[in-house]
């Protein structure tokens, strides 16, 4: 190790030569790529280039819901902020002198590449309006807002995080601001810091929270405005105005590269079937995007499974059919990608989960399971308390999944669906089906399954050039909204598949995204998740091609995400935003 250190020291230029081992180790802290990304300056669309002349104009876009009952309910819940118009940005010369703004920012929920660039956009935008403006970052999510724990963001701090992944500058959290005490604490924090605006960066739940906070502030005649920024790698915070949430592009590029690498390995070895679980519990956008980018042999889309009312046995047989077809071509390998939330879309599994939750909620079941020491006995007991289709479904599962279903539970005591190894469940079911076919003489190959989860490794990567630019623009949009006293809005940028110079920033009223669901006997506003549109362009392209991909080696190798080089490589957009062209 000492020899290596001395050798690398000698190779360094004289002016950068460290004077101690500690300085040398510090010089290794950042990679060459990291240093280069810190210097990247994302271009802005024309409307955002001169913040001092930026002005807000209401549009004629109809933001009302077609359902009178829903509109009435939303008006009751949001009397101060419901019915606002969508706004667009324009330039107005000769605006009055800008005053300093004090803005707070919260990162809410799971990580997504580009979060630091939203904060960089906020910082640069407030400083462009007035050099004495301030940006305050609340630590570890909404909890920091409630508890008044914050960091004042300086130029030195923000410059260490520009164009980097993760949320580690200020941290994130999943606290929900729901009860009156939390709203009062939030108001106390905002008033203590004399905030002019608050920005909530998050997904559907977090932006629902932003709408509620905006309403609370306005009802209590507070000067602070609140706006949201769309963040989720799952792509399920999307509509005709919010073309995509940030982070989705970067994650899909990372996962598609992984799928391509695995497909190349499968083809090289010629003997492995890879079953890959993809991020996306509520919607299959990531699975569909990565399928279009990498062309695996099988890609399951949860929304299609639900529409066709497919059973677990149906899915198993479909995949087994592909394995058998490829075996006749002497291709004993392949790639299957599966959305992590698949089983929640399988009708029989939905019923099984409900029945298991009821059974596990009883004290008798808990006592019996605690007394039984062997897994086989626990499984037998659960089968005895289930009935009909649920018993049949449970009995047909691999033993590892049977145990997971009864032992892994969430804080509410329910089956922890997100912890189920969906890829292993499908892989084991397919293996069982193929053994059955082998005995019948209809399959003569050998299935050697391998399992992988395309998950957390994608959430904190360097943002793609697309996400770096998109997030930087979103930060400026949020400040523009706050500067003109807009509250209860979410920052948007449209025409994302075009050149940055053609992007169109705007603001969308959060209540326009709302639905009402009954929870615990009371109506609750929620932003409805956007599922895969089975009649949409993306799915139709996939549907036309998947049979060919199933038997051919049509794998597409996207390679690692690129930041430098030809624009057709570095500025390549995803299929999701291209569908808006």
Care to describe what's here?
The chain has 23 helices and 15 strands. It has 581 residues and is α/β, with parallel strands linked by helices. The protein has a nine-stranded mixed beta sheet with strand order 1-2-13-12-7-6-3-4-5, with helices on both faces. A four-stranded parallel beta sheet has the order 9-10-8-11, with helices on both faces. Strands 14-15 form a two-stranded antiparallel sheet. Strand 14 and strand 15 form a beta hairpin. The longest helix is centred in the middle third of the chain and has 22 residues, at 248-269. The chain starts with a helix and ends with a helix.
Sum this structure up briefly.
The protein has 23 helices and 15 strands. The protein is of the alpha/beta class and about 575 residues long.
Tell me the β content. Answer: 5-15%
- How many DSSP E strands? 15
Helix content class: 40-55%
Shape: globular
Please give the structural blueprint.
Layout lengths: L1 H10 L9 H7 L4 H7 L15 E5 L9 H10 L9 E5 L10 E6 L7 H15 L4 E5 L3 H6 L2 E4 L1 H4 L21 H13 L4 E6 L1 H16 L5 E6 L17 H22 L3 E6 L6 H10 L3 E2 L2 H6 L4 H17 L5 E6 L7 H14 L2 H9 L3 H11 L2 H8 L3 H9 L14 H19 L8 E6 L10 H19 L5 E6 L9 E6 L4 E6 L2 E6 L9 H15 L15 H4 L4 H4 L3
Parallel strand pairs: 3-4, 3-6, 6-7, 7-12, 8-10, 8-11, 9-10
Antiparallel strand pairs: 1-2, 2-13, 4-5, 12-13, 14-15
Helix pairs in contact: 5-20, 10-11, 11-21, 13-19, 14-17, 16-17, 16-18
Provide the descriptors you would attach to this structure in a database record.
581 residues, 9-stranded mixed β-sheet, 4-stranded parallel β-sheet, 23 helices
